[in-house]
Design a protein that fits this description.
Helix content: 40-55%
CATH class of the largest domain: Mainly Alpha
Order of helices and strands: EEHHHEEHEEEHEEHHHHHHHH
Shape: extended
CATH architecture of the largest domain: Orthogonal Bundle
Structural class: alpha+beta
Number of strands: 9
Number of helices: 13
CATH superfamily of the largest domain: Trigger factor, C-terminal domain
Radius of gyration: 34 Å
Length: 427
């Protein structure tokens, strides 16, 4: 077999592949044997008819098609390896010469991974921001703990206030007609949670236990139900119960109740340390993102459209899996977000463009700097992953190999090492 490479345009090449005549004849003969086992040919048992009879029965084109299905795939894979190109899509194949007794010649046109022109990626002096924690931040954390550990007290009398939990019966009407999904009984609603459409929860503030309230509203124009979008409605509502949070005082007793500490000062110190650690982690993330963003911006590369398309597909599939875990379908997601498949894919495009370029630039830097992942580093990474998922490391590695994902895992380790290298070189 021989192969020649022709650059057609930026990031698009054509491979002209020549397969020995003998291999083509062998492939056609094997196709004839396969057909002989599948079709009934008068006068012959299945699998025993000679090639000439099989060809008369199914036609030469059928034999050629069967032979090419097997031969071209193998020949193309060998041509890719021999030429050293990196395809990013399935090839478009045209037959140049197909005749028994002569070499088989075909052309495979394909988009390839683009070359990256790296800019400055060392000595950019992007440092990690200093982190400090204010008294106000500590107080805010304490207030959050107050809310988390507040008790709900059922009122015997009183009016609905902001942040109260109310138990209600309600039914919604447009005109005099109730609408589907607009009725509930013994429904617990936190006032101010934004659970209902704008104006409903505010319309209950000031109502008393046992009171009937008519809340008149207009559905938003962008409401997910087209039947209700922009329409006026009334929610006939009965206030059945009011519950209000009882907030503990910020003192030593509070600290004992909500933590392992004996005093409020000890709790404050612990919260301050946790805020500081959280801030430092976020500052490190911000530094990493800033370094990568600058390095990627400094590089230039023309990326084939197919790479963006494939990335968008992968992101959409990931979204679909995430929604499925939450018990939601893509169709429901489109309804709730007032979007379509087209608008979602278009919204994902900028993120896909950024992701593809980042991966290409990091890969180019790893190659330029000779950054690799050793076998020991791969095993160590698999061990950590196995511990996170409480699996056996050996079994996990075998699973990655079986699914053809070990090389992807290795590339992810190289990418991680490259990011660490960039942060070290640009701090």
């Amino acid at each position: 077999m021989s192969v020649s490479v022709e650059k057609i345009e930026k990031n698009v090449v054509a491979l002209e592949v020549t397969v020995d005549a003998g291999k083509f004849v062998l492939a056609v003969n094997q196709a004839a044997k396969a057909y002989a086992k599948k079709v009934n040919i008068p006068g012959f048992r299945k699998g025993k008819a000679p090639r000439r009879m099989v060809e008369l029965h199914v036609g030469k084109d059928a034999l050629y098609d069967e032979a090419l299905d097997h031969l071209i795939g193998v020949a193309y894979a060998e041509a890719v390896e021999e030429s050293g190109i990196n395809p990013v899509e399935r090839p478009s194949v045209d037959l140049v010469q197909i005749e028994e007794g002569k070499d088989l010649i075909f052309k495979a046109k394909v988009s390839v991974k683009p070359e990256v022109e790296l800019g400055e990626y060392i000595g950019l002096h992007i440092t990690q921001d200093a982190v400090s924690v204010t008294d106000e931040q500590v107080l805010e954390e304490l207030k959050n703990k107050q809310q988390q550990h507040a008790r709900l007290i059922t009122l015997d009398e009183g009016m609905v206030e902001y942040e109260d939990t109310v138990t209600i019966d309600f039914e919604g009407f447009t005109g005099d007609v109730p609408f589907v999904g607009g009725k509930g009984e013994n429904y617990e609603l936190v006032i101010g949670s934004g659970t209902f459409i704008p104006g409903f929860e505010e319309g209950l503030i000031g109502a008393e236990i046992g009171q009937h309230v008519d809340v008149n509203l207009t559905f938003p124009n962008e409401y997910h139900s087209e039947e209700l979008a922009g329409k006026e409605a009334v929610f006939k509502t009965d206030i059945k119960k009011i519950q209000r949070k009882e907030i503990s005082s910020l003192d030593d007793e509070f600290a004992k109740d909500v933590s392992e500490f004996e005093t409020l000062d000890e709790l404050k110190t612990d919260l301050r340390n946790k805020l500081l650690l959280r801030g430092e982690i976020q500052a490190k993330r911000d530094q990493i993102e800033a370094v990568i963003s600058k390095v990627v911006d400094n590089a230039s590369v023309e990326i084939p459209e197919v790479m963006f398309t494939e990335q968008i597909k992968a992101m959409a599939e990931n979204l679909n899996r995430t929604l499925a875990l939450q018990g939601m379908s893509l169709e429901q997601y489109y309804q709730y977000t007032n979007s379509t498949e087209e608008t979602m894919l278009e919204r994902l495009r900028p993120q896909a463009v950024e992701s593809v370029k980042k991966d290409l630039v990091l890969e180019a830097i790893a190659k330029a700097e000779g950054i690799e992942a050793t076998e020991d580093e791969v095993d160590e990474g698999i061990q950590k992953l196995a511990e996170n998922y409480q699996q056996d490391a050996t079994s996990l590695k075998q699973s990655l190999i079986a699914r053809g994902e070990l090389e992807f895992f290795k590339r992810s380790l190289i990418s991680e090492k490259t990011v660490n290298f960039l942060v070290e070189q640009n701090s």
